[in-house]
Amino acid sequence: MALATGAALRGDGPSPGEPLVPGTDEAAPFPDPFAYDPDREDELARRAAAGNAHILYARSPDGAAATAARVARYREPVEAAAEKAGVDADLLEGLVFLESAGRPDAMAGDTEGAVGLTQILAETGQNLLGMRIDVGASARLTKQIARRERRGLGVERLRAQRRVIDERFDPAKALDATARYLIFARKELGRADLAFVSYHMGVGNLQDVIAAYGDDDEPSYTRLYFDSTPASHPRVVRLLMRLGDDSSNYLWKVHAAAEIMRLDREDPQELAHQQALQGAKNSAEEVLHPQESTPQFADPDALRQAYEDGEVVPFPDDPARTALRRDPRMGELAGRLDVDRALYQGLRPDALAMALYIGAQVREYAGGSPSLIVTSTVRDQTYQDLLVRRNREATRNYSLHTTGWAFDVARVYRDGPHAEAFQYVLDRLQAMNVIAWVREPDAIHITASAEAEKLRPLLERLDP
Q1: Alpha carbons 357 and 342: distance in angstroms, whole number
Q2: I need a labelling partner for 397 at 20 to 30 A (CA). Which of 73, 157, 328, 447 fits?
Q3: Whole-prediction pTM value?
Q4: Using CA atoms, how far apart are residues 73 and 82, in angstroms rounded to an integer?
Q5: Model confidence over 441-463: pLDDT tens digits?
Q6: What is the rounded CA–CA span in Å between residue 73 and residue 78?
Q7: Which pLDDT value is given to residue 388?
Q8: Is residue 179 helix, strand or coil?
Q9: Which tens digits make up the pLDDT trace of 228-240?
Q10: How far apart are CA 92 and CA 72, in angstroms?
Q11: Within 10 Å of residue 73's Cβ, how many Cβ atoms?
Q12: 85 burial class (0-12, 13-18, 19+ CB within 10 angstroms)?
């Protein structure tokens, strides 16, 4: 999704805990079930870890289990460093998983950049952490190591030399330096969770975010993140979004990595199961609705029966009230199956409630009356098979569209603020672990979780 540079979200949307009114003023309000609540901070952190776990499973070198095995080798020095820094050893272990996937020779670019088990920048290591780092000598040794590896020759002697002249490549010294950083950051920021956030975001950037929040000298990061909306703290949202390097979700990924390490120790079978679910698609949609336990609609008759039973409900085309416009092409292949295209214009009630919630929030945060264009909703397997033959983007495997839990939104927006508001809502709901979404060439594919049931009061707004 292309966002306009510098686009500002309006600050007049629904505030946390206040009634959500997606349509007319006459609609009966209800409290937002996904608003920040200080009594739910631990739950919100767990949700955010789960909602941000997919990328770790999808991109961990050789898979999450192999990465966990590499990281586990450093548990003893991790515990020593965590004790020195006064932080949770599991979170520090999660940081190692996230930063290097347990590879002490990992490099992001050249030796000036992030290097080693905890990916320390040369400048930070030299000037802040007091590490011995000879960038030039390290670069020369790195090239020699690469040449010898290509020729199948031994490199351990060269690696040992490099660990001496560039301590970032020494796992114990890198962890000790990371402990020193966390001590420094905690002193500057006042909290261990904020120290971890700053490891990627930087202390100065995080201090700007805290200053923009303004309501508390030392807010938790859970509060900063979940209590800041384009309505309540628009500048915080803008600062976090404009970092552009996923810094805002870094802490949640550290927690997600720590959970993978826990599963590796305590339940390897479940870790393998999660890897299979997370790796099945480009989002975590199969974690929300595994194929083995999620009913699918096999053919038009099965889908027709689902409408009669109330398991699927029609998708409205009432943008003035819903902020969602139904694409007139929705269900366009129905004629080839000799059925009415209205059969393919519906969702499970809870998924429809989530679509209404998204439309409401985006409209309020973007200002004015823009509508999202919904291009696709429920299908049966017969329709899916027909679509596969015509659209190379359509999956030949398990499709969440055939369950009624998924819908697609066209990547067409009124303006930059409209696109930015949509991005904010997607990211926030994924962090709540109540949707999974993925960017496709022409649309955003969204899968609602069963927790969308909390939004069912919104369906009452569809009544005449």
Answers
A1: 22
A2: 328
A3: 0.91
A4: 15
A5: 999 999 999 999 999 999 987 76
A6: 10
A7: 87
A8: helix
A9: 999 899 999 999 9
A10: 12
A11: 12
A12: buried
